[in-house]
């Protein structure tokens, strides 16, 4: 293994670290927003900057773990926010690194919650107990329970074939011509992304509002 890398140098960096949680915007304290930005966004940027000189030197690859949730959100807007931000960081980095022969790839998994355990089932009781008095005055326990049930039902539908995402990561690192983006998702999830990307915002809002009301 060492003899193999001696000629290749530092070839690939995979930014995979990420955390997830559930909650509407006002339910989460500022400290949670700061923590998520620090891990999901700034963590990847720190690692990238640290290894950038070696990656330029050896014309390597940089792979980032994003998500289709960068395009829309169904109760985890804080996670969606960080993934949308990392996508834009990658878009800038990909263009800037072309002149050095460094390729930047983004992996966009769909729902693999059952494979990764990144998001355990949420507890409506715990969410309610952590709400500020201001939020408790606006919402009620029944609403929080409904949203928690909805989110947990999504988690339970997650794919257990995590190897599909790993295969995309391997291809991004080893293919002679890697893709800029690898969307590894079910047809229904790809359709949501398609609607979000190409239709007016009001259409996507209607689709998501309908889903949330079910």
Automatic annotation (TrEMBL):
The keyword Transmembrane applies. The keyword NADP does not apply. It comes from the Eukaryota. Keywords: Membrane, Transmembrane, Transmembrane helix. The chain crosses the membrane at residues 62-79, 191-212. Pfam families: adh_short. Belongs to the short-chain dehydrogenases/reductases (SDR) family. This is BDH protein.
């Amino acid at each position: 293994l060492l003899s193999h890398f001696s000629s290749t140098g530092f070839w690939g960096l995979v930014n995979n670290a990420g955390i997830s949680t559930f909650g509407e915007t006002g339910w989460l304290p500022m400290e949670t927003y700061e923590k998520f930005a620090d891990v999901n966004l700034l963590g990847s940027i720190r690692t990238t900057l640290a290894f950038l000189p070696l990656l330029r030197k050896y014309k390597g690859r940089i792979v980032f773990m994003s998500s289709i949730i960068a395009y829309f959100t169904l109760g985890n807007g804080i996670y969606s926010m960080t993934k949308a931000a990392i996508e834009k960081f990658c878009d800038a980095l990909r263009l800037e690194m072309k002149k050095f022969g460094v390729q930047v790839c983004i992996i966009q998994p769909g729902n693999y919650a059952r494979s990764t355990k990144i998001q355990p089932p949420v507890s409506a009781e715990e969410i309610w107990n952590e709400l500020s008095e201001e939020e408790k005055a606006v919402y009620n326990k029944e609403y929080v329970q409904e949203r928690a049930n909805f989110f947990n039902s999504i988690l339970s539908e997650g794919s257990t074939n995590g190897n599909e995402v790993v295969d995309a990561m391997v291809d991004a690192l080893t293919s002679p011509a890697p893709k800029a983006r690898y969307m590894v998702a079910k047809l229904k999830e790809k359709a949501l992304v398609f609607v979000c990307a190409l239709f007016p915002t009001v259409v996507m809002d209607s689709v998501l509002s309908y889903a949330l009301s079910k």
